[in-house]
Amino acid sequence: MEQTYIMIKPDGVQRNLIGEIVSKIEKKGYKIAAMKMIRISRETAEIHYGEHKGKPFFGGLVDFITSGPVVAMVVEGDDAVAGMRKMMGATNPLNAEFGTIRGDYGISVGRNIIHGSDSIESAKREIGIFFKNEEICSYERSLDSWIYEN
Ligand code: DAT
Ligand code: MG
Description:
17% strand; Alpha-Beta Plaits; binds 2'-deoxyadenosine-5'-diphosphate; 4 strands; globular
């Protein structure tokens, strides 16, 4: 079963979208394996967004992601990485389809509400940044046979 790192950014928290987003993830059928509210340090933000270091928006991105609490999650399910990217919509909310989180709730690329890993490798790396192994729960859901054929 695939795991991905999902984070409701400070704008999503401030705009009272935590419940809405968690609900979408649950209703889709994904399992939340870990979840916590945290305030990210600059150091951690720079590691998490390391691939963007040197880009013109990097400073603003780090300022923004450290500007308030975020909700960090490990979301689990078949093809969870790609599935969550689809649910999030395009990076720039102007290009995100309606029905997606960014398409429905966002307007600016620098305030796009949610982060989700873009590959299985990044998911492993990002989960490792934000969660200890013992914080990730492994549990059975009795309704899984109504979500998965096998
Ligand atoms: P994504 O979050 O869809 O994976 P990304 O990894 O390319 O997108 O960029 C990380 C975040 O940086 C993105 O969610 C918002 C911000 N960002 C990306 N491109 C930007 C730009 N051109 N101007 C301002 N912020 C940008
Ligand atoms: Mg990215």
